[in-house]
Amino acid sequence: MTKVTVLGSINLDTTYSIPRIPLPGETMHVNGVSSAAGGKGANQAVAAARSGVDVSFIGRVGKDHGGEFMLDTMKKEGINLDNVLVDEDIETGSAVIMLDENGQNSILVDAGANGEVSVKQVEAAEDTIANSDYIIAQFETPVEVTIAAFKIAKKHGVKTILNPAPAHEISDELLSLTDIITPNETESSLITGIEVNEEADMTKTAEHFRNKGVETTLITLGSRGVFYSSSVGKGFVKAFKVKAVDTTGAGDTFIGALSSVLKADYSNIEDAIKYGQQASSITVQGAGAMPSIPTREKVTEVYGG
Ligand code: RIB
Fold first, then answer.
1. What is the DSSP secondary structure assignment for residue 156, as one 8-state letter?
2. How far apart, in whole angstroms, are the C-alpha atoms of residue 147 and residue 137?
């Protein structure tokens, strides 16, 4: 069975449903407030676990009700939490999500315990990383920890997937340790300075990353689909047209689901992207990040085998 390790964030999400994203200086009444399990790392781990693979997590929560709830939620998904620490001094990470009537969101994140995930923790998790097919990381935990984890992964021939969100500049060192990078179009432009409109821009972006050592670039383009460029070729995989209720966690679902089916030689890359998009198209039709991530059975029920 494929084994995936996720190094990443665990957040409690509070979603405010609003007519539209407020303008600077504007005060607005909300239509409703709800809470759900979230965090980019935790969402990606749950997406992979619900797709039936073996998932381990490296992360940190606070010693509080939120942390207890999140660990309990992830444990019920069958995720191995041996490398998740409970921090005595800092609260569990949290996110405030503004969700508009079109299902689009803006997210504010308070790192909390996620900011305390340490190099020592990933060193202690060397065996877990070494036994994985993929390790996935994002930018909601300290970047030096991702570098340390990817170095361990490389030492053991494990493929590394970097989801560069929230986007910021990426060092050449981290790029040289990354096998697959998965920005959305906005993140891609912020990181490379290359506007992503036409296919030629995407090809240029993939070349930019390849020159820095990244073998595979996947740019997620929302309703337009996914552009990929890899050692096995390049192309587009179209998105599935659905009515979005809440896009929170869609990108995370894509990455987790993709990692559960992608072969090490990328020979099934188009099918893996298609499966990731099928899963995320289901996520956007439900409220909240983690609660709406589908199982493999659900994806099969909706889209066939
Ligand atoms: O990608 C969605 C996630 O981003 C939310 O669950 C929130 O916690 C933030 O990490």
1. T
2. 10
- C-alpha torsion 186→188→191→196, nearest 10: -80
CA distance 125 to 62: 20
Mutating to test ligand 1, I would choose from 40, 99, 220 the residue with most ligand atoms within 8 A of its C-beta, which is: 40
Condensed to tens digits (0 to 9), the pLDDT of residues 224-249 reads: 999 999 999 999 999 999 999 999 99
DSSP 184: B
| Ligand 1 pocket test target in 14, 46, 69, 252 with most atoms within 8 Å of CB | 252
User: Could you tell me which residues are beta bridge partners of residue 84?
Assistant: 59
- Rounded CA separation 274/278 (Å): 6
Residues forming the active site: 252
Q: Which residue has the tokens 């909390």?
A: 112
pTM: 0.97
The continuous run of DSSP H or E covering 85 comes out as strand 80-87
What are φ and ψ of residue 240, in 5° steps? -95, 130
Cβ count near 24 (within 10 Å): 4
Q: How far apart are CA 244 and CA 198, in angstroms?
A: 24
